[in-house]
Amino acid sequence: MRLGAVVLTMGNRPDELRALLDSVAGQKGDPIEVVVVGNGAPLPKLPEGVRKVELPENLGIPGGRNVGIEAFGPAGSEVDALLFLDDDGLLPHTDTAELVREAFAADPRLGIISFRIADPDTGVTQRRHVPRLRASDPMRSSKVTTFLGGANAVRTRVLAEVGGLPDEFFYAHEETDLAWRALDAGWGIEYRADMVLHHPTTAPSRHAVYHRMVARNRVWLARRNLPALLVPVYLGVWLLLTLARRPSLPALRAWMGGFKEGWTTPAGPRRPMRWRTVWRLTRLGRPPVI
């Protein structure tokens, strides 16, 4: 199985980027082709053989990753699967690529693999990095309904069939949008605790646009993908959960502004999932109302 890797960078972490690229080059098995996308930023000097794309402006996370996909041909067709890795991550084990190949070979309907993210110093996996509701045991692998954007592998046939990430999201929830479309097309998603990406512990709210885009994209996600009956239920639950978490007043204002924006701006093409997909998500432990 031919593997490629897409790494998105803002050009501000050259040492971490080089360490990541070295860890990819050190994987067992056939070499992995790598594309580094400079998202509105010039790229540092890269190792020989690494492809590079320098974008004149920041297209956001999904837009930048989509450019990386197309660098491997339409829908990444030059390879069989693509790894998407954060530029400040690191593959600590040399057999991760081989595990990816084995997993895809063992299950022809497995479309996406979500890696376990662990802090390089403590080994701790944050609860938010386990893509399921029952997240107390990050060492348990399972089938899931979404995946982690900067630590995953996607079969390129999935991208050819259901399309790439939603460019307009810019940041937040773009993985779930792709995951729901993949599940609706009959593909499976697995969280694998034995496939590890080291990444320093961070808080998503460090991004200035976090609260607004999380809320806006949550609305867009529902409007694009859910049956009409479930849209108000899903968004009502998330509104109550947000209020229950008692965010600061500035954060709540930003969230409410994004929530309104999600209703008043175009969400992109609407392709509501089938009810059997709703039932599948429910059986997997995450009905699309939460």
Short description:
The chain has helices at 14-25, 60-70, 96-106, 156-162, 174-184, 210-225, 231-244, 249-264, 275-283, and strands at residues 3-9, 33-38, 51-54, 81-86, 110-118, 142-143, 151-155, 188-198. By secondary structure, it is an alpha/beta fold. The protein has two domains: 3-202, Spore Coat Polysaccharide Biosynthesis Protein SpsA, Chain A; 205-272, no CATH class.
Under CATH, the topology of the largest domain is which? Spore Coat Polysaccharide Biosynthesis Protein SpsA, Chain A
Biggest beta sheet summary: 8 strands, mixed
Strand share of the residues?
15-25%
Q: Report the principal-axis shape.
A: globular
Could you give the order of the helices and strands? EHEEHEHEEEHHEHHHH
Radius of gyration from the alpha-carbon trace, in angstroms: 18 Å
Spatial order of the strands forming the largest sheet: 3-2-1-4-7-5-8-6
CATH architecture of the largest domain: Alpha-Beta Complex
Number of helices: 9
* Low-pLDDT segments: none
**How does the helix and strand content classify structurally?**
alpha/beta
| CATH homologous superfamily title of the largest domain | Spore Coat Polysaccharide Biosynthesis Protein SpsA, Chain A
Number of domains: 2
The residue fraction in helices comes out at 25-40%
Would you report the number of β strands?
Answer: 8
Pathway: Cell wall biogenesis; cell wall polysaccharide biosynthesis
Protein name: Glycosyltransferase family 2 protein
Family: Belongs to the glycosyltransferase 2 family.
GO molecular function: glycosyltransferase activity
